[in-house]
Design a protein that fits this description.
By secondary structure, the chain is α/β, with parallel strands linked by helices. The two termini are 32 Å apart. Helix content is 43%, strand content 18%. 54% of the residues are buried. The protein has two domains: 162 residues, ATPase, nucleotide binding domain (Nucleotidyltransferase, domain 5, 2-Layer Sandwich), CATH 3.30.420.40; 174 residues, ATPase, nucleotide binding domain (Nucleotidyltransferase, domain 5, 2-Layer Sandwich). It has a five-stranded mixed sheet, sandwiched between helices. Strands 8-7-6-9-10 form a five-stranded mixed sheet, with helices on both faces. The longest helix is centred in the last third of the chain and has 33 residues. The site of zinc ion has 5 residues, from helix 4.
Length: 364
């Protein structure tokens, strides 16, 4: 049992500037006291992707005000805060520097401990904040920069079971949208277009399906979409809808195979766990086809499917504050003020780096 903790979280690893105050009670339950997220979508949309320099500048401009706002909404001052948690990787280095330096400055000025948090750990522990999940559980992280299947064993204890060997799933959505002339970000646009499409029209590849490892690959799918679009030139709205629907079907089948294997492995290795759970995180978790696929898969394998509310699946500072609270409560040491941001920082340091995986290193 640890005393109640109030943690200030800061997140600036990609294109969201965010600050939050989270409470962790004696029993380990969590409550978000104040939470603000400023998306930079508009700043980047003209470029069809995140521009690192624009992102870093936007973080500098917004962060102070957002921290004040988060404290105000939580009805606390810095005096009431037990520790500061700032994302220090992985992500875009300019943004990470802004958030971590701000965290260090507050820690220095207030004398409170600083936790340099791995952004992926924030995603991994969110289900304990929202659903009070117990360890161990499986997490599928599907965002613009990551596609990973992670075994969450404890605070600071993670095993990466699978990762993409090329594009992240969100990246595949974004690239597909771009080559079909759909707006950025591509995921919601592809999902919208797919609604009226015929998912059977194109038989797109499902790389690595059947493979014994648990890795993912999406670049071949993107190439197949390009070839289909080129062969139909000029493409009609109906073609676009059919391509998007077929693309989503290929992804659903891929995930069914890959994640299904992960669930089987979990059963084999952790058969004594009473209520095994699969958690989904990352922006792609907004996709209804994907959610339905994962839900059906979990039903089939008798797993609990946990999908935190969307604003906590996408990038936010509550998850960073919560990760800091969990580290503090678990007795893990705070970081020194000399801690450096890391654009690359695998959650599972024992896992091999796979060629091409997370190559953007930008988004998580
Ligand atoms: O987690 P997130 O908000 O940001 C980072 O990647 O850090 O994820 C953004 C990604 C983008 O690639 C976006 O296209 C994708 O999530 N996305 C979706 C949907 N909404 C967002 N992909 C598929 N379907 C959606 N509805
Ligand atoms: Zn993220």
């Amino acid at each position: 049992m640890s005393p109640p903790l109030r943690i200030l979280g800061i997140e600036t690893s990609c294109d969201e500037t965010a600050a939050s105050v989270v409470l962790r009670d004696e029993e380990g339950g969590g409550r978000i006291l104040g939470d603000v997220v400023l998306s930079q979508l508009e700043e980047h949309s003209a470029y069809g992707g995140v521009v690192p320099e624009i992102a870093a500048r936007a973080h500098v401009e917004a962060l102070d005000t957002l921290i004040e706002e988060a404290l105000l909404r939580a009805d606390v001052t810095l005096k009431d805060i037990d520790a500061i948690a700032a994302t220090s990787g992985p992500g875009l280095i300019g943004g990470l520097i802004v958030g971590l330096m701000t965290g260090k400055a507050i820690a220095r000025a207030t004398g409170k401990p600083l936790y340099a948090v791995n952004h992926l750990e924030g995603h991994a522990l969110t289900a304990r904040l929202t659903d009070g999940l117990s360890f161990p559980y499986l997490m599928l992280l599907v965002s613009g920069g990551h596609t990973q299947l992670i075994l969450v064993k404890g605070v600071g204890d993670y095993e990466r079971w699978g990762t993409t060997i090329d594009d992240a799933l969100g990246e595949a959505f974004d690239k597909t949208a771009k080559l079909l002339g759909l707006p950025y970000p591509g995921g919601p646009a592809v999902e919208r277009a797919a609604r009226t499409g015929n998912p059977e029209r194109f038989d797109f590849p499902r790389p690595l399906v059947g493979d014994a490892r648990l890795d993912f690959s999406f670049s071949g799918l993107k190439t197949a979409v390009r070839q289909a679009a080129q062969s139909l030139e000029p493409v009609t709205d109906e073609d676009i809808a059919d391509i998007c629907a077929s693309f989503q079907r290929a992804i659903a089948r891929t995930l069914k195979d890959r994640v299904g294997r992960g669930l089987k492995r979990f059963r084999a290795e952790y058969g004594s766990v009473d209520a095994p759970a699969l958690v989904v995180a990352g922006g792609v978790a907004a996709n209804q086809t994907l959610r339905a696929t994962l839900q059906a898969l979990c039903d089939e394998h008798r797993f609990r499917f946990v999908a935190p509310p969307l604003q906590l699946c996408t990038d936010n500072a509550a998850m960073i504050a919560w990760a800091g609270a969990e580290r503090l409560a678990a007795g893990l040491p705070a970081d020194g003020l000399d801690v450096a941001p890391r654009s690359r920082w695998p959650l599972d340091t024992r896992a091999q780096t796979l060629i091409g995986s997370g190559k953007r290193g930008a988004k998580a």
